[in-house]
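Appendix B: complex inputs.
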Amino acid sequence: MVLVSAVRDYVNRMLQDISGMKVLILDSQTVSIVSVVYSQSELLQKEVFLVELIDSISKSEESMSHLKAVYFLRPTSENIQYMRRQLSNPRFGEYHLFFSNMLKDTQIHLLADSDEQEIVQQVQEFYADFIAVDPYHFTLNMPSNHYYILPAVLDPSNLQNFCDRAVDGIGAVFLALKRRPIIRYSRTSDIAKRVAHEAAKLMYQQESGLFDFRRMDISPLLLIVDRRDDPVTPLLNQWTYQAMVYELIGIQDNKVDLRSTGKLPKDQQEVVLSSEQDAFFKANMYENFGDIGMNIKRMVDDFQQVAKSNQNIQTIEDMAKFVDNYPEYRKMHGNVSKHVTLVTEMSKIVEERKLMLVSETEQELACNGGQVAAFEAVTNLLNNENISDIDRLRLVMLYALRYEKESPVQLMQLFNKLQSRSAKYKPGLVQFLLKQAGVDKRTGDLYGNRDFLNIARNMARGLKGVENVYTQHQPLLVQTMESIIKGRLKDVDYPYVGNHYQQGRTQEVIIFIVGGTTYEELRSIAQLNASNSGIRFILGGTAVLNTKRFLKDLEEAQVIARTNANVV
Amino acid sequence: MATRNRTLLFRKYRDALKSVRIPMSSLASSSVPKSSGGGPVIEMVSTSLLHPNRSYTPLSTEDPGNSSKGANAVIVGLPPAWVDVSEEIAANVQRARTKMAELAKAHAKALMPSFGDGKEDQRTIEALAHEITNLLKKSEKRLQKLSATGPSEDSNVRKNVQRQLASDLQNLSMELRKKQSTYLKRLKQQKEGQDGVDLEMNINGNRSKAEDDDWDDMVFSEHQMAKLKQSEALTVVDSVNELAQIMKDLSVLVIDQGTIVDRIDYNIQNVATTVEEGLKQLQKAERTQKQGGMVMCATVLVIMCFVMLVLLILKEILF
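Resulting structure:
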């Protein structure tokens, strides 16, 4: 909530002091930032009657000097170039410039140089440089996310860009929250260390004046971890509502695009899934599939009641009541159709891809089970004709991650089988994954088999039995968070940056996963936050992952690694 | 949340850079007062001389309404004509709001028990309600005028202005209807209350003649009251109907909150796709027309005509 309201406050402040008709100009990144927190109707109320992208606005020559232009851009060199061109050929009456992060002096110089007609009224930095998709969740949605996988020597300039964007985003989050954190990072990950050190440099040295907020006794904790410490979570099939929609259909900036899934009425082709605006979604986003079905049925029944009473219009009073309630009714109708469509689509996909079967094996691989049984199960599924390629790849990867050291012969067999079955499989992807995220590379105890305490805990859980086979997996993040709550996060695994040490118990923890977050982890965070442990957790990442996205990152990284290996 | 204002630094750079540029000396415009920014009007003129391909109309220069915070004068052109229409509608909305407040007061007054006839009150209420409904209707008609065609940026602005005014109008009409229906309900209650009193009087039957006369009078005036209230109810119902119609028309224009249409990025994309679609449709139309059967037929017929003519001439010549 706090992140969403911070971004909303920024947008409100941008618009409130400027009277008259306005036009809001955004770039491709800030469009996402603003769209998830502000709606079109709210913009209209603030008299913003036109919203444009900065690259399309430069193509038009129409002069609209009765409008005042409000620009909200990221301070990239490309945007500065666009701005310069627009300032030298002004179309609007006034210009108000807002940038989502810190401007360099040279950039201000360039802008001042082009502002010959002195039409720029203000230049401000409003640090809304992250997409606040959910309460307690933000993402940077980086297009080339795969650079975190590669070592620095392979492509230093792109990796530097990646780091810069991550550090900018983190800095913006803390400026929006007005805090300066203590930073810890995951020991085995070079990229996490790099991001952590650069963020510390930014907050404590370069811009220490900007970050010097009122010192409370307890600074928040920023923990930077690497996706490769837990490669299992993005590979699993999900069964809770939000995560499932993202896994099977895909969510972008809280919008779901259903256009590819057959014939749907026009208003259902693209829908919005936002917990702020949709009460049903908010109540059900972390529920599992079976419960959702029941809740939707209840919602449909309620709606049918209302619809029936609406059809029974006999007196003037009834008509008046109908007209009164019509907007509500329409909204309810839209909402009900949206959820029914989504669930129908997902059921169809589950049926087609036999996901119940696949997921059962996946959960076994991720949580417990012996090696022999696992090998058999995976082989059977690989032989099954109905299983799609991505599911086969997923299964082999999960098996490899768990049993990489045991019985390499069988592992080889699986690889060969996978290669023979899946035409599109790029050979060596699984091995690449193992190289990057194998047991030697990971911090933390992914399978709970490294120290006695965890083994005991696992056995206890096995004996107790699980409530639901399909949702028994708990991401590694949960263990990390529990250690933080108990104050026992090991220094050895997660060292501090600099010499700021934790005094007392933190109350606010921001976990930044380099490489991307998953909705399953978000669910764990939401559950922990709701359990009143005294600590508030916020999750953020360079992207939001599902299996497809994770595999794409791996493939792209593999291609680059291979081409560079050939060159060298 | 933290922000940082770079305007001062920006202005410093801007002034510094300006003094580095070619100084504007002899171009006299003595009548124009120098503002703090160093005579921007002069600069305007000179830059337009220096860069003749700059094309914008220096209409009104020192527009005090627009310069804020001691900033420099800004060239403001005249806004397009439809802005007048939107401002008119906005003014109507404002007027309707004040009248609604008055109506609320009148309702309250009419509902208070009074000894007088109450006809005065009814008339004011009726008049007010009528006025408001007229205002809303008029605004709604004018609103339709704001619709624009063509995928220009101006048309987007118009569409958005239209949407916002439509939602304002819809809210107002809903408010009016709610007020009227509560008034109606309270009226009804009062009427029943009076009937209750009537009943009571019936029960206490031992009356003298004088009282009976009084009672007759009361019954008579009660009939009148009942009729009055009924006619009021009818007028209120009428306006409810009218408003229902307006709401239906408006609901097409208003955005539903929380749907995809309410998303900023969807609207931006939509503009782009509509423009592209429009282009595609045009191209398709052009192609179909070129390949059109009509054109073929016409050409064939013309050729046939010529052929026949030639044949005719040949026939005449040969025979």
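Residues 15 and 97 of chain B are 48 Å apart (CA to CA).
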